[in-house]
Amino acid sequence: MSFVLIHGAGFGANCWDEVVPYLSAEALAVDLPGRGTRADVALGTVTLADCADAVREDVEARDLRDVVLVGHSFAGVTVPLVLDRIPGRIRHVVLVSAVVPPDGSRVLDQIDPGVRELVEQSITAGVYHQARVGAAAMLCNDMDEATAASALNRLADDSAALLSEPVNLRGYRRDIPRTYVHLTRDQCYVEEFQQRSIALLRAEVIDLDTGHMAMISAPGKLAAVLNAVHG
């Protein structure tokens, strides 16, 4: 049994570094195309299907089975595509403040207007680049100065096209148990939108009193939730 960890927008697999030591089983943190171990992929070419294929490739390369698949934030629209590709390998899905907009809509249209404005201002030539000041306000409200600096040092450019690509949620129709980790102090994916995602998923809900980057600000608490799901 193992964990597979999928990061959100603007980060790579290293956002999970603090959580992995607390986990009770083998953990694979995947770099989606355009960052980390896949930094050779041009961001302007990346699609949601490419992201799902990257997860599938890494899982199959290690022949992982009985997986607890964990998706953070923007990974909420990658996870259903993964479920359609390797359903037999996934035992449980955990979504951490995950973006789950209505099927066929765009992520960009389903986030808080204030956050959306910051995101749109951060797009140049098809690349989404988060400035440290804006990211600090959205992502680091529950962190001390040193922890915030560590988080912000891991910011990565992302594909702006992913934000405007229509999402395909078909994979969530599969009979695979799912849990939504509701982050009560999240200033990025705010309460109203988390509740919309929860309603769409009809998932078990676990509250965690953290900001958006719980894996960095409270890794032990998040790991405890994941370990309890894993069993």
UniProtKB/TrEMBL annotation:
<keyword id="KW-0378">Hydrolase</keyword>
<dbReference type="Pfam" id="PF12697">
    <property type="entry name" value="Abhydrolase_6"/>
</dbReference>
<dbReference type="InterPro" id="IPR000073">
    <property type="entry name" value="AB_hydrolase_1"/>
</dbReference>
<feature type="domain" description="AB hydrolase-1">
    <location>
        <begin position="3"/>
        <end position="224"/>
    </location>
</feature>
<protein>
    <submittedName>
        <fullName>Alpha/beta fold hydrolase</fullName>
    </submittedName>
</protein>
<dbReference type="InterPro" id="IPR052897">
    <property type="entry name" value="Sec-Metab_Biosynth_Hydrolase"/>
</dbReference>
<dbReference type="InterPro" id="IPR029058">
    <property type="entry name" value="AB_hydrolase_fold"/>
</dbReference>
<dbReference type="GO" id="GO:0016787">
    <property type="term" value="F:hydrolase activity"/>
</dbReference>
